[in-house]
Write a structure and sequence with these properties.
5 strands; 3-stranded antiparallel β-sheet; single chain; alpha+beta
Length: about 110
C-alpha cells in the first residue's frame, strides 16, 4: 500500500485487542507487548496459525495496530476511527474498546 499510495491509506479491519472479555483484552495486549503473541496464537490455533469460522472462513489473527508503526513512519498524520460500538469507556479507547477500527494514514 505504501509503495503505491501518494496521499492517503485507509485500512478498515479487526482489532483483536478490542475483542473478548476485559481480562482477555488486557492479556492479548500484554502478550503482544512482551513479544509473545505469535507463540500464544500458535498454541491457540493448535499450530495451524489460523482459524476457520462460519462468518469469515479462514482467518488469521490481525489487528490494525499491527500496521500502525509502518503507517506512522509513512504518514504525517494518523486518525483512528472506531467502527463498532464501544465496549466500555477507557483511556485506552479505541485500542481496548473497539473490535473494529478504520485507520486513516494521511501524507501531506
Amino acid at each position: 500500500m505504501m509503495r503505491v499510495a501518494r496521499k492517503a491509506i485507509f485500512l478498515s479491519d479487526s482489532n483483536r485487542f478490542g475483542q473478548g472479555s476485559l481480562l482477555a483484552r488486557w492479556m492479548k495486549l500484554a502478550l503482544y507487548k512482551l513479544g509473545l503473541w505469535k507463540w500464544a496464537d500458535f498454541f491457540r490455533t493448535r499450530g495451524k496459525g489460523y482459524t476457520i469460522t462460519e462468518g469469515d472462513g479462514l482467518a488469521y489473527s490481525y489487528s490494525v495496530f499491527d500496521s500502525y508503526d509502518l503507517l506512522a513512519e509513512w504518514a504525517d498524520r494518523i486518525i483512528l476511527i472506531p467502527t463498532d460500538a464501544m465496549k466500555s469507556k477507557s483511556w485506552f479507547h479505541p485500542l481496548l474498546t473497539s473490535g473494529h477500527i478504520l485507520i486513516c494514514a494521511i501524507r501531506e
